[in-house]
Specification:
Elements: H1 4-22, E1 27-34, E2 40-43, E3 53-58, E4 61-64, H2 82-107, E5 113-116, E6 120-123, H3 126-143
Antiparallel strand pairs: 1-2, 1-3, 3-4, 5-6
Helix pairs in contact: 2-3
């Protein structure tokens, strides 16, 4: 003997198959919704109250109303110009010099002040100095082409 869930599943499959077979060369709309008990229903008409999902059957193909649409073709990004390369090279050169200057200052042993919130200055302690040195070395690796291994 079949239980209520098996009957609902069979009825759902039968409804969808009937809609597909009944519209062999056309379009038919089926509505899907859940009732308060959580049971899923399919119908040719929307429910009298509440929300539903509209499913369109087109020549045997299921098309959901909320299905993702294909993205339109986009143009490739413009190619970099020689001016862009020039500006990038200048930026690298300035950033490399600043990183090297920062590292030299941090390794000099002189007192280094850093701006704190409220535009106040505070002296770098040993841990902060080591952290700033590590950052300066990372920036040298990033911006100074002659500092990179294999270059």
């Amino acid at each position: 003997m079949r239980g209520p869930r098996q009957w609902r599943a069979s009825a759902m499959v039968a409804l969808v198959l009937a809609a597909v077979c009944g519209s062999a060369s056309g379009q038919q709309t089926v509505y899907q919704w859940k009732d308060a008990a959580g049971t899923t229903h399919f119908s040719a008409a929307p429910p009298p109250h509440g929300s539903s999902r509209k499913i369109t059957l087109q020549d045997g193909q299921v098309e959901h109303e909320n299905a993702a649409k294909p993205m339109p073709a986009t143009k490739p990004p413009p190619r970099p110009t020689s001016e862009l390369y020039k500006v990038e090279a200048e930026y690298r050169q300035q950033s490399c010099k600043a990183a090297r200057d920062n590292l030299a200052l941090l390794e000099s042993g002189n007192t280094v002040l850093q701006r704190a919130p409220g535009n106040r200055q505070r002296r770098l302690d040993a841990a902060s100095r080591e952290q700033a040195k590590a950052q300066a070395k990372a920036n040298i690796d990033k911006f100074c082409l002659d500092a990179r291994p294999g270059k």
